[in-house]
Amino acid sequence: MRDAQAEDDRRYMARALQLARRGEGFVEPNPMVGCVLVHEGAIVGEGWHQRFGGPHAEIEALSAAGPAARGATAYVTLEPCAHTGKTPPCTKALIAAGVARVVISRRDPNLYVKGGGVEELQAAGIRCDVGLLADEATELIAPFTKLMTERRPWVIAKWAMTLDGKLATHTGDSRWISGEDSRARVHQLRGRMDAIIVGRGTVQQDDPLLTVRPSGPRIPTRIVLDSLASLPIESQLVNSSQEAPVLVAASSAAPPERCEQLTAAGVEVWQSAAREPEHRWLELLGELGRRNMTNVLVEGGAKLLGALFDSQSIDEVHAFIAPKLVGGAGPSAVAGRGIASMSDAVQLNRLAVEQLGSDLYLHGRLLKKQ
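^ thats the sequence. predicted structure below, dont judge the formating
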């Protein structure tokens, strides 16, 4: 009987995790959360956090279950909140509904919640079991956890390269390395980001637009790392600043007249006092964290990606590999100082590989040394 119960518990929590992912791109800076209510072996209510500021997963599931929630078991991917934020506490709703047991995948890293939800439920006589599929739940909310604990966004590096590892030919031509299917996937990825970041060299070479087509759940801020605020007024980014925000991350050495010109054109100019580029990058991440940005996408080029790699700032990689060879001395995907010994090479965790048209699409999270 216990084995059967354990199997049922895993199945229902897996369903709750599946539901939680539906909120991706819609709920940030809140975490993705799913909830399943089960009574006498049948699912009586399901829910997930659907949008920032909207009802939490538990409330959605309780609403779907109605009176059937009394005596039910709630499977929740994250510890129910016990504080009042944009919505009332979920713990009080579960208690009022008469739920008999709550199975929680992992505790909330938010200091406003951490442990308080479990304590309040237990004080009301509700049995709480914590830790089922905790690794999966931890992976699900890793960007939220980083924002809560480090006050910095989750950094995703993306690039498209040829089979011989080039971002462009030796003349700088890079359109198009990947196929239409891969480019469509990039737009899907962009559509759930808070920001898209490129270096000044990428803008100079490609004059990119960096918008989302078709539109996604979020409108990302387009950020250019440009120490002297030299982004051309006639660039596509500046000309589309009313369509989506543009931020130039400059240094204190940027000429005031350039900052004023960009500001007048609708571009926000943020200046760092740090002297070293690496320190300016870290200061920018802190600023984006203060703005509650959860996920940011870095689209290169190689120099910027290399600097981020050297500073161990990359959390996740999305690479599109086209079956093309160009040879020559074109730029590789990641420059920087690099790693001296192959035995120290950084590996990806939970690597996923997919074929998109004729391209290979690989993505995974970096295994960082403690």
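Residues 29 and 292 are 6 Å apart (CA to CA).
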